[in-house]
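Here is one chain, start to finish.
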Amino acid sequence: MKAWPAPAKLNLFLHITGRREDGYHNLQTAFQFLDFGDSLFFDTNNSGKIDLQTEFAGVPSEDNLIVKAATLLKPFTETHHGVDISVTKRLPMGGGLGGGSSNAATTLVALNKLWQCGLSQQKLAQIGLSLGADVPIFIAGHAAWAEGVGEDLTPISPIEPWFAVICPDCHVSTAEIFSSVELTRDCEPITIPRFLSGEGRNVCEAVVIKHYPAVANALEWLAQYAPPRMTGTGACVFADFQSQQQAQDVIDKLPSHWQGFVAKGCNQSPLTARALAEK
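Its structure:
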């Protein structure tokens, strides 16, 4: 079985421009994929059952986004096949790298082909949105400028640097950060050209570093080598470099109590490349 990639993403910036009546936030952000992530393996079976063979600590199978995605897609296939799914996990939970959403998107894209559902990318994105606001970006498969609650996507092509990514040993609750009274919710909207020229920050960062010292420490440490940023609501932080070796030199100096990796920024998702190879 050939692996299906579930790549990580980075939020290159994150502004909140207002709060909606339904409690959600209007935001502006830019997503870029990494050539690093989880790997999913799908083997169709004749039992008709969906079986996730990899155990996720603390997450019952029926609550896993992979199982939820497969279950939502099952009514659209005319085959009687089920699927056995296994996962090689590399992305931390609660790190802001989109691991769960990426897993769900990869499941929808892969099973749409393996089960011969024939659904359009737009329909898959619609199904994915019910699982999480970030799922459609992974299905769309191109670096994107996002507005609304994150579902209004415009393809962009920022530079594709090498990133050093640090994963502090903590799990940041997205719900906690977005409900914080300290969070800035009145950013002036900016434009794509302004972002591409260097504007933009992550407004969640100030809240996270106040409540999660591990993230604050990681940002301070990484600042020795390059301007650091936090992705999403954290906990992972990153900095970009011109070469793989420059990024690797930083990761090689990483304190032993942190995890980290080097990855290339990708404007086309590795998942999209894998799906195109199936045609």
